[in-house]
Amino acid sequence: MTAPIPATATATATWREQLSALRFLAAKVARVHGPTHPDAAIIAQVVNTLIDTPAVDMDTQAALSRRLDELTGGFHPWPGSCGSVHQLFTGLKAVAAALPKKSQS
Predict the structure, then answer these.
(1) How far apart are CA 17 and CA 80, in angstroms?
(2) Which residue, among 49, 50, 31, 48, has the nearest Cα to 40 in the 3D structure?
(3) If you compute the radius of gyration of the chain from its CA atoms, what whole number of angstroms results?
(4) Of 37, 77, 97, 98, whose Cβ has the fewest other Cβ atoms within 10 Å?
C-alpha cells in the first residue's frame, strides 16, 4: 500500500502544471505586445524562473508571486487587451493564489 500524497505536494504539482501551460502564452504575449508593453517580456521571464524554482524554495516562490502581481498591476489586463492577455493574467492570478505568500520559517 502506498502512502497518500501530501496536500502540499498536490498543490505544488497543480500550480506547476498550470504555469507550464501558461509558459507558451506568456512568450506569445511578450512577442506580440512587447513593443508597447515592455513588462510583457519580464512577465515571461518570471514565469520561466518560477517554473524552474525548486519546490522547497518557498521564499523565492513568494517573491516571484509578488513580482507577477506588480508587473500585471494586480492581474488586471491592460486597457484594450486581447483575449490572450486576459487569459494569461487570469491564469497567473490563479497560480499566484496557490503560491506561498511569505516565508514558511
Answers:
(1) 28
(2) 31
(3) 14
(4) 97
Q: What is the Cα–Cα distance from 24 to 98, expressed in whole angstroms?
A: 20
Grid cell of 14 as nine digits: 497543480
Q: DSSP string spanning 40-72?
A: HHHHHHHHHHHHHS-TT-HHHHHHHHHHHHHHT
pTM of the model: 0.82
CB 90 within 8 A of CB 22: no
Locus of grid cell 505586445:
33
The CA distance from 88 to 40, in Å, is 11
- Mean pLDDT for each 10-residue chunk of the chain (105 residues)? 44 80 95 94 96 91 95 94 95 91 59
Q: Residue 103 phi/psi, 5° resolution?
A: -55, 145
The cell numbers describing 27, all together, are 512568450
Q: For residue 68, with 0-12 CB atoms within 10 Å meaning exposed, 13-18 middle and 19 or more buried, which class applies? A: buried
